[in-house]
Amino acid sequence: MTAENDIPEHPVAYDVVVAGGGNAALCAAIAARHAGASVLVLEAASKFYRGGNTRHTRNMRCAHDAATATLSGPYTEDEFWDDLLRVTEGQTNEQLARMMIRESKEMLDWIVEQGVRFQPSLGGTLSLGRTNSFFLGGGRAMLNALYLTAARLGVDVLYEAEVVGLDIDSDRFRAAIIRQRDGTTRIRGKALVAAAGGFESNIDRLVEGWGEIARNFLIRGTPNNRGTVLDMLLGAGVDSIGDPTQCHAVAIDARAPKYDGGIITRLDCVVFGIVVNKHAMRFYDEGEDVWPKRYAIWGRLVAAQPDQIAYIVFDAKSANLFMPSLYPAIEAASVAELAGKLGLDPDRLSGTVAEFNAAVRDGSFNPDILDDCRTENLTPPKSHWARRIDTGPYYAYPVRPGITFTYLGVRVDHDARMMMKAGGSAQNMYAAGEIMAGNVLGRGYAAGIGMTIGSVFGRIAGRGAARHAAQ
């Protein structure tokens, strides 16, 4: 858009203006400041709620060649690539993805240099002790460390500063128009880094792609990611990438709030039981693969079920094998009683459990590997971790699709510069994090990759923006 003449100018012009306040934004801001640029971060949320979805994270996935004090073994670039290729089913930009993986090896040291600390993974956290580094104190502690470093370096931050307009001339950013409590201001900058997230909290926008079923979705993260910056960029001629219906969607506790339930509402017990819909029927292989590579398909699976609701059913043998939800599991002395508490048909649920139990073939149960406990002559099968549900008390969690972030975003090049529909890359506009995640994630997800995308491309974008500003 073109700025209106009557919008007052901010008294300071910056080398780099960063739209967003989460991990990607802060990595970009810090990298740009290290490179000598003056930097302003525009965060739409208040200081308490700063950080977008990063507040709800707890780990990041990075390649590394050897075990460390907090990682139990090596995770090579090739293994990372194989994992990404598998979960995306090939829908990824290989050049950018391999660059991200290669750069991720440096991030563990770089992020520590910015004040972030790691800890060994906790028990029941998706078996990620070798591949993913867990933040000491979780995502909020990680954010606080980055903000502290940014402040020490001289990065300016404006809170409750919503970007409501972008002054873009062809492929060149000139200024951001922001709205705060005391009015609207135009802030000039030599370069822009867009790190303002996707559009997952814009329910009407989700409905455009998914239909009315999207009104039953829960949003795991911030209510501020409404896609406004994304829409401005696309409207200004930036090229798009990704499918509006592809997203990071997991099964979360159906009792969670509409927004901001975070990671404590996620359910990681699918592999230890069975999942049924409102008709008490199973609909997918709960033990298809190790959980870190499959947990993010369950939001989409539940979205396809009647009324977008499902129930994870398990028994006492599995009750202590996973991190529980914020809400207690629903408990009963029998499967039929459990069905009644869930509002399901008791005969149907009892029949589904009995059919499953009869198909189980015993093996050596091991929650940490692809074990040999499976079913036979059952549709859908359960390929691993199949154990009879026969030991009371019996438990269940109701689940709905929980949307973390969307994949439709801006297309970028290897310097994290936005690419234009008319061809070529923008002069001075860069992107990092969820707003460009579709370049790497065409579909699917593996735990911790979102933080990898944010930190790696954030650092690349910040450095690139600072270089442009210095020219």
TrEMBL record:
<protein>
    <submittedName>
        <fullName>FAD-dependent tricarballylate dehydrogenase TcuA</fullName>
    </submittedName>
</protein>
<dbReference type="Pfam" id="PF00890">
    <property type="entry name" value="FAD_binding_2"/>
</dbReference>
<keyword id="KW-0285">Flavoprotein</keyword>
<keyword id="KW-0560">Oxidoreductase</keyword>
<keyword id="KW-0274">FAD</keyword>
<dbReference type="InterPro" id="IPR027477">
    <property type="entry name" value="Succ_DH/fumarate_Rdtase_cat_sf"/>
</dbReference>
<dbReference type="InterPro" id="IPR050315">
    <property type="entry name" value="FAD-oxidoreductase_2"/>
</dbReference>
<dbReference type="InterPro" id="IPR003953">
    <property type="entry name" value="FAD-dep_OxRdtase_2_FAD-bd"/>
</dbReference>
<dbReference type="InterPro" id="IPR036188">
    <property type="entry name" value="FAD/NAD-bd_sf"/>
</dbReference>
<feature type="domain" description="FAD-dependent oxidoreductase 2 FAD-binding">
    <location>
        <begin position="15"/>
        <end position="442"/>
    </location>
</feature>
<dbReference type="InterPro" id="IPR012831">
    <property type="entry name" value="CobZ"/>
</dbReference>
